[in-house]
Fold this sequence. Notes:
This protein is α+β, with helices and mostly antiparallel strands. It has 2 domains: 14-89 and 121-174; 180-330. The longest helix has 31 residues, at 49-79. Strand 3 (220-229) and strand 4 form a beta hairpin. The two termini are 30 Å apart. Helices cover 51% and strands 16% of the residues.
Amino acid sequence: MTEDIADNYVPILFDRISILKRILKYIAIGIPLFLGYAIVLLLICDENPVLLLIHLFLQVTVGFFGIRYTYTLGRDTRATIHILDTTEIKSSEFQDYAITSDSISKVFERYLSNLENKLETDYDDWMDIAWFAVLVLAMIQTLLLVIDELPFICFLPSPFLGVLCIGIFVNGYRTVDITYIIEELEYLEYLLKNKIERIITLSSGLEFQVYAIVETNYNLLHDLKIEISPDRESLKVTYYVGLPKEHLERIQIQTSSLELVDYLQNIDLSNTPSWKINTATSTEEMSVIFTNNVNSIDITQSSTYVKSPSSLTDDLQELGEIVKSILELIR
């Protein structure tokens, strides 16, 4: 496949599994709590005026704090939404697809246009209305118990409050504005495109190809790389953007030439303090790997790609310096 793959993969996905686990935990805790609440209501269900007042007070108090707490849980849950790292996907399968730098923008534009609706925010707060409903039910139930003893209605406030809490949880969840994620992803798109274009510019005159490394189970972008093929035998240069948090931005030079390895290991890094040199050896070839240990992107942490113009300029300048030094040796 060629750059048509730009219509088939997404740049990011949100970690909805962690959100689902959080919600299931709340449900697992909530069910016994509401069952216990129903039992208590049944135990104190009596026409005795003191018990009636306790019954009324308990409904109002539990309803008030229960609704406020579940509203807060809903808000906190949405605030924990974060981008899924492909290294967290079990049984991952990856495939390289040849693309162009322009297709990166197409992927992000298509995704962001659909994302805005999914991140819709509802600013209406239904918490006071829900608590008022609890208060009305408590008063009606107390009145009915005064008129006639109806034990079967004593436990009703528990499931009623449970339903209200579910609705209030959803309401609290939707009131959190996370549309800032769209702006953060626009920063990511800009940074990726500039890094790729910087490498392409410096590779002028050499054969190269940009690849999207895609996690095929989710059609999710795992990383971007550029393979540069100098006119030399047994020499390959690969630049990786390093999107996963466990993978650093890096440039890997694979060669069988010990002389070239020696030259590469002695490249002056005084102007590129974020980059370090590592060497790996196999039976057939050696790899010299330059890694960005300071300013690499972590797809799950927006602070690594939401940067000021000056910081972005510095990062691109360092990248340009190190790539230029490498390519001067291998041309």
